[in-house]
Amino acid sequence: MARDIKQTMEFHDGPGTRINKPVKGVRVRPRRAHAVEITGGPVSPARVGLDRDRISIGRAQGTVLQLDSDEVSRNHAQLTRLDDEYTIEDLGSRNGIYLNGVKVHAAVLRDGDELQLGDVFLLYHEGN
């Protein structure tokens, strides 16, 4: 169960007991809206809002971001949200992931980053 540690602190009051108490003076930042924009490749241009903590990317049916391209693996990559930022991780794809032209296995994304998955190009937008 995911919990925002900025809102509460966990205290142990004996074996098996957990108490969450609000922390005074800590202001919780609202989550910003993130998105990826398909900018190139055989897939139609589109802007996709990122509204989940885990987003699967690939060619297979059932992936959250389905990219219909032979150069994209069935289960190509996964975006994972931690606090207010996303990381991308290669799931053993055939053609890998390129972040701003550099091949990576996993990376934290920043606003304006360009991703290449096979022959599909994505632009990452943070907080838009």
Task: Describe the model.
The structure is a single chain. The chain is mostly beta strands. It is built from no helices and 13 strands. It has strands at about 10, 20, 35-40, 45-50, 55-60, 65, 75-80, 85-90, 95-100, 100-105, 105-110, 115, 120-125. The strands form three sheets. The chain has a six-stranded antiparallel beta sheet, with no helix packed on it.
Task: Briefly summarize what is shown.
The protein has 128 residues and is an all-beta fold. The protein is built from no helices and 13 strands.
Q: In terms of topology, how is this protein built?
A:
Elements (H helix, E strand, L loop, with lengths): L7 E5 L5 E5 L11 E7 L5 E5 L3 E5 L6 E2 L10 E6 L2 E6 L6 E3 L2 E3 L1 E3 L5 E4 L2 E6 L3
Oligomer: single chain
Tell me the strand order in the biggest sheet. Answer: 4-3-13-12-9-10
Given the C-alpha coordinates, what overall shape results?
Answer: elongated
What share of the residues does DSSP label as strand, in percent?
A: over 45%
Number of β-strand runs: 13
Low-pLDDT stretches are none
What is the H/E order? EEEEEEEEEEEEE
Number of helices: 0
Kindly name the structural category.
mainly beta
| Chain-averaged pLDDT | 86
Key phrases:
single chain; 128 residues; 6-stranded antiparallel β-sheet; 5-stranded mixed β-sheet; 0% helix; mainly beta
